């Protein structure tokens, strides 16, 4: 990452920060998979991310202010959390997922959560962001009745993988 | 681009196709700048895209079905048009622009169109997509009263660059 952006265009700014083959995939796994440790992100990777690529992406995401790294000290594993800027990448992930679902080959099990997010519209995205704020930033919000967005996404995924493996 | 995607995840599919530092920038210029020829895309590039990178991205975007290339024959310049899949990347561009505007350094002149798109919400994005369909695919839709999304974006940009150069 250079110090000066290539231009003053906000789309370019987003592309410069997030437009590479792995950064958004790592954020997706922290966000939807609650994978908070290096080992989890590495071994549960559907895309088979390589260890050195994961390490470099985590470092650049922390440097860019999208993740924080909590170092628990000698012998303990570092834990990653989303920042507010990281949580605000969710609409980018949803938009990319909508495009991918429509125009590319995808698996049923890995698509049900995307469909649920699209059906839920901006309100579900906002509710999920609130839930991520509570979980990653310790920001408490008013309790809402019924299952949370994360619970709904998890339930849909669990149902889907019974009939259709990844 | 490999034949098989890295996984069946729709977000990954979107990232695999669009997650690089230049593809979405080229689509942005075709979409918002109506730059349809190689020379226009090269010389008007705010980000200073290199000739060989532009050539490779145009080739891969045509190969991936996001652009079509109309070859007008010997001595004539090839003209690029958006496909339906290309037009459907607009929500990804808007989401990236929203994130970039909020979290990165941007210029006033290059941000007013982004703000207008955000204020207009999903309806303005849909209207702009209809306008792009008419312009790039020849699909005619019902005339709407008042200035079109493109005219509104252009007017906002023209006003902004008077007081604040790029």
Overall number of strands of chain A: 2
* Main sheet: strands, sense, barrel of chain A: 2 strands, antiparallel
Rg of chain A (C-alpha, Å): 16 Å
Q: DSSP strand (E) fraction of chain A?
A: under 5%
CATH topology of the largest domain in chain A: Arc Repressor Mutant, subunit A
Distance between the termini of chain A: 34 Å
- The top-level CATH class of the largest domain in chain A is Mainly Alpha
User: Greatest interface and its residue counts?
Assistant: A-B, 51 and 51 residues
In short:
With 166 residues, chain A is mainly alpha-helical.
Structure overview:
Chains A, B: InterPro entries: HTH_HxlR, WH-like_DNA-bd_sf, WH_DNA-bd_sf. Chains A, B: Keywords: DNA-binding, Transcription, Transcription regulation. The structure is a homodimer of 166-residue chains. Chain A has 166 residues and is mostly helical. The first copy, chain A, folds into two domains: 1-83, Winged helix-like DNA-binding domain superfamily/Winged helix DNA-binding domain (Arc Repressor Mutant, subunit A, Orthogonal Bundle); 89-166, no CATH class. In chain A, 59% of the residues lie in helices and 5% in strands. Chain A has helices at residues 10-18, 23-33, 38-43, 51-63, 84-87, 90-103, 112-137, 149-163, and strands spanning 67-70, 79-82. In chain A, strands 1-2 form a two-stranded antiparallel ribbon. The longest helix of chain A is centred in the last third of the chain and has 26 residues, at 112-137. At the A-B interface, helix 1, helix 2 and helix 6 of A face helix 1, helix 2 and helix 6 of B.
């Amino acid at each position: 990452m250079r110090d000066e952006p290539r231009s003053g265009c906000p789309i370019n700014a987003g592309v410069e920060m997030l437009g590479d083959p792995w950064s958004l995939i790592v954020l997706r796994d922290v966000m939807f998979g609650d994978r908070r440790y290096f080992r989890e992100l590495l071994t549960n990777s559907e895309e088979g991310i390589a260890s050195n690529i994961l390490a470099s992406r985590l470092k650049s995401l922390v440097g860019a202010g999208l993740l924080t790294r909590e170092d628990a000290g000698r012998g303990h594993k570092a834990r990653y959390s989303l920042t507010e800027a990281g949580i605000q990448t969710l609409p980018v992930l949803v938009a990319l997922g909508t495009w991918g679902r429509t125009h590319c080959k995808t698996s049923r099990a890995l698509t049900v959560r995307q469909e649920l997010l699209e059906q839920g519209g901006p309100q579900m995205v906002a509710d999920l962001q609130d839930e991520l704020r509570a979980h990653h930033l310790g920001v408490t919000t008013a309790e809402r009745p019924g299952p949370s967005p994360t619970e709904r996404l998890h339930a849909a995924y669990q149902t889907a993988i019974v009939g259709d493996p990844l």
